[in-house]
Each structure stands twice: as C-alpha cells, then as structure tokens.
Amino acid sequence: MDSRHAKNSSYSVRDILTVLFKNRWQIIGIFATIVLIVGVVTFQLTPLYEAKSTLLLKIGREYLNKSDLNSNSPLMSLSQGELTNSEIQILTNRNSIKKVIEAVTLERMYPDLAGKGRSGVDPLEAAATRFEEGLTVEAVKQSNVIEVSFKHKDPKVSAQAVNLLVDVFKEKHLQVFSGPKPALVESQLAAYERKLKDSEENLQSYKQKNKVFSIDEQRSLLLEQRAELDGALKSTESSMRELQNKIPALKSQLRTIGSSKTPYAQPDRERLIDEARSRLLTMQIEEQQLLKKYTEENPLVVNFRKEMQVVKHYLHDQEAALNRKTNLGNSMYQTVEMDLLRAQTDLDSLKGKAAALHEQLRRTDAEVQSLDLTERNVQELKREQAINQKNYETLLSKAEEARISDYMDRMKLANISVIQEAIPPAEPVEPKKSEYMLRGVIFGLLVSLGFAFLSEGMGRTLTTPEAVERRLGLKVLASISHKEG
Distance from CA of residue 405 to its chain's centroid? Predict the structure, then answer.
C-alpha cells in the first residue's frame, strides 16, 4: 500500500502538462508582468559611462633611501607590492578627489548636490563620497601598472575626471616625495663649511702654539736623548761609587804617612799646577760644547761651571803656595795628598753632573708625557676635522641632489608614465540591458511556474484520474471526458 501510494504521489509528465495547461493564462500573465516591470526599470535607469586610464610606475629617486650624513649608498626601502599600494593611497586621497571635483565643477558632476547643502553636510564632501563610489583603482597583477577607472552619466565628464585625477596624482606624488629645499640644504652646507674651517684653524693653531711639527720624530728624538741621559747617569753613578770607595782609602794612607809630612817640593807643586791648568783648559772646551746644545740656564751647564770653579780655586791655592817658595818635602805624602784632592774634586764634579742628569731626565720624561698629551689632543682635533670634512662632502653631494630634485619637481618630472589617457567611452557600462532582461525572463518563468504548481497543490479540485488515485488512494476504473459546448 505504501509503495503504491508513493508511486501514485509522484507527478507524471501528463500531470505537469495538465497543470501548465490549466494555469496557462496565470503563467503568461505573471511572466509578462515581471518581464515588463524589469524592462521598464532597466530602460529607466540612468546609463553610466566608464572611462579608463593606465599608469606605469617606475622605480625612481623617490624610493631610494640614503642616510642623512653617514652613507651615500642608496637602498630600496619598499617592495614592489608596497610601492604600488603606496601610490594607490596617494592617488585616491580625498583632497585630490576634491580638487578634481572643483576643477570639473560640482554643477557638472553632481548637479543634484550643487547648492543644496543639507544641514551639517558639506556638498563637496558628499560629492567626494559619491565620486569614490564610482572610482576604481586596481593594480595589474605581476606588473608595475595601475588601472584607474571612473563611472559617470556623462562620458566626457568621466574621461575628464580620470585625466584630471591622474594630473593631480602626479603633483601630489611630487609633493609627498619632495626632498629638502636647496636653500635649506645650502644653509646647512654653509654651516658645516664654517665648522670645517674652524676645525682646520684650531688644528693649525694648536700645532703652532705647542710647536708640533712631526710628533713621531719629536718622540724619537726625546726617547733617544733620554736613553743617552740614562746611560750617562748610570756611568756617572758608577764612577761616583768608585771614588766614594777610593777617598777613605786615600785618607787612611795619608794619615799613615802624615808624621813624615814636609812641605811640598817646588818641582812637584809646579807639576800639580800644570795638571790643574790642563784640566781647566779641557773643562773650558767642554763648556763650549755644552753651550752649543743647551742654554746657560740649563742645570747641566750650571753644575759644570761649579766644577770649573772648584778647579780654579785649587789652581789659585797651588799658585799661592808656590809663590811662598816652600822647601822640599815628602814626595809620597805629596802624591797621596794630590790623589785625594783630585778624587774629592772629581767626586764633587760627578755629584753635580749626576744632579744635572737627574734634572735633565725629569724634564725629558715630562716632555715625553707632554708630547703624549699633545698627540692625543692633535688626534682629537684631526678626528673632529675628519668628521666635519665627511659631513661637508656628504652635504655637498646632497645639495647637488636637492638642486636636481627641485628642478625635476618644478618641471613636474615624476617617475609615473601615462600608458593610456582616458577618452570618452562610446557605450555605457551600466545598465547592462540584455543581461537585466535575461535575468527578468528567468525570474518571470520561475515565479509564474512556481505560482501554478503552488496553486494546484493547494487547490481542492481533481482534474485527472491520476490526481484522484493520488488523493483518494483508490484505483480509477473508468473516466469520461467532458467538453464544454
């Protein structure tokens, strides 16, 4: 029973045709009404014309970054996709759109907005919003090309708006990417030029003030002089130690033979005087040699002259004694006494020399330390000069770049090329009448057929034997056709 009922409940082709034939006038009426309404609405829509322009973006000076003063190597700061998106944002900014509307005039573009100014709404803002709805800006995939299109009911206005937007975009592009003005860079260049000259003058002035000519040579001479002084001091101290050991022995020997001491013999005293005169002459020669190297105030010269005074006093005493014509005396005592006197004189001389060498060493060490400090100061001044020199050269290059960039901006030479300008389109892009009518026909068929089957399913009449079997679940034995006379 269930299977039979399921079989009887399905529509056959005859049933479908019966329903269509029975409701043919309703189907035709509904279909015609829908198609007519769609057609009327379609033909009453305002046609929109779309003008298009294509732009080529070239990687130029705008996207090459350079650090301000530390590098001259340009670097790309954006990828190709980021570059294209940045340009699209510049192109579609609202200020540029407002400039286009003002250039075309609000009355030509959107006359319904001109002069109406709803409360709290600026007509130009409303026009810009409507302009954005009709504007399409897309980047062509795998290329540096941007496509700009705009829809308007007037084909001439559509093309004019697109071309004006491209021109405003070029100006805005130059404005956004314009570098510093040449006057500003040149003022900075003049300031760094003054800094460079000041640093050069400071370096030269410091060298002249501190008598710096060649630090390496000066240091080499000072170190060589110190080595000589140190060697001389060690030799002097060694000689002093020998004399300090010798003098006590001579004094002891002199005391031993003192009991037999007699006045000097005149020939021996004359020999001592001759030796003293010879030593004084030698010292005078050495004094002249010292004065060639050092000034008279130099401690080495002063102490040497003190030694000369000791020898002069000794010579004076011996000459005075000779004038008294002393008798012959003990020759051994005279010899020892002469050796002691010579040793004491040499020791005093060596002490003075050692003190002078110590002072000279101290001064030499001080000069070395002063030279080290001077070298650090000179290096600091040279570094300052080098930095100013580098900054000046970098700014000099940037000033030239700024002049070139300013010239290109004034000539409106942007790295954007128009591949195709917008021209007034011949055919509207909206509404698409054939597409709308086709959709109206399909929609009308679906609605009319749906209405026919819906009314048949909800109706109470039985028009075919199959409908009787389907509704009542009984087998129809016979049917009689009826035809209205």
Answer: 20
